[in-house]
Design brief:
single chain; 5 helices; 5% strand; mainly alpha; 159 residues; 64% helix
Length: 159
């Protein structure tokens, strides 16, 4: 019977003072575990804060880069527009003199719409204007559907 009191839930043993050091050790260990848990929560909150700050900075950089690219694109569009006007003016001048000007035909591509002063519709990067039968508008065709020979012919020559 006395042995059962010692092995019981601890109440009988605590009454006799035998498990007191063990209980304080368990309490101290639990306290240490709780402290480590709270410390790890603080560290996770700090890491999350740094991550969110880094993410915010990257978003700001992205928006800045995007705005710079838009500005560059706008400038390039203006330059292309001016170059087309210069080309058209030069062609008009040469046409008035009586000789057709073909010296710049390969340097700056134009369409019949842009030659008449109208803005050409934007061209998709993945499509090409395919030749059409006479009297029909040009057809759009995927660049990916071209044959290897056609793609090689369109690619710049390797040096």
């Amino acid at each position: 019977m006395e042995a059962q009191e010692h092995r019981g839930t601890g109440r009988a043993a605590v009454r006799q003072g035998e498990d007191r050091p063990r209980e304080s050790t368990l309490h101290e260990a639990l306290s240490n575990i709780m402290g480590a848990y709270h410390h790890s929560q603080e560290m996770m909150a700090m890491v999350l804060g740094k991550f969110q700050e880094t993410q915010r900075q990257q978003e700001e950089q992205y928006l800045g880069f995007r705005e710079e690219l838009r500005s560059i694109n706008s400038t390039l569009c203006t330059i292309v527009g001016v170059l087309k006007e210069v080309l058209n003016t030069r062609r008009d001048t040469v046409a008035q003199q009586g000789a057709p000007d073909t010296s710049l035909d390969d340097e700056l591509p134009t369409t019949s719409a842009s030659a008449s002063g109208q803005e050409a519709p934007p061209q998709d990067r993945h499509t090409s204007t395919a030749p059409a039968a006479e009297g029909e508008p040009p057809r759009k065709r995927s660049l990916r559907s071209r044959t290897k020979t056609e793609n090689d012919a369109k690619a710049p020559a390797k040096k």
